[in-house]
Request: fold
Amino acid sequence: MSSVLPTNYLTPTGREEAWRFTPLKRIAGLHDPAVSVIDRISIELFGSARAGFNISTVKASDIPAKSTTTDAIVQRLRSEVTEVLHLKIDNEAVINEPILLKRNVGSSGEFSRTVITAGAHSKASVIVENTGDGIIGEEIEIRVEAGANLTFITLQEWGPKAVH
Reply:
């Protein structure tokens, strides 16, 4: 399935051949530019910052995506998100305790983009815990530099009304 958002004039309705098996009602309009979604970073570090990594908020234009996609929601997200949460693990850092990021999505729809960069020859574990009943379109991009060892765990503990 291919898409050309954000310049797409026609939003998929489910009647198109490429979309006919997609349950569009279950994605709550995240693919539809006419549906209002806020740009929000709802993910944050749980616990205190420690040596060996840094978390910052950067302009989306300063950290463009490394890959291309044909996913309509990700294309829309990339065109609308203005800020990105960046977790940067230092070169040669060995972080023994997992880095825990928690997200609790509220009731309004949101887009969120996170970039995790494991510096050269670093070793760390990152756990992302997702909870809530909200609607979210998100992209988590993982960049692993030469010799890095990153264990990534994501917990999908969403409520029964969540759309993710």
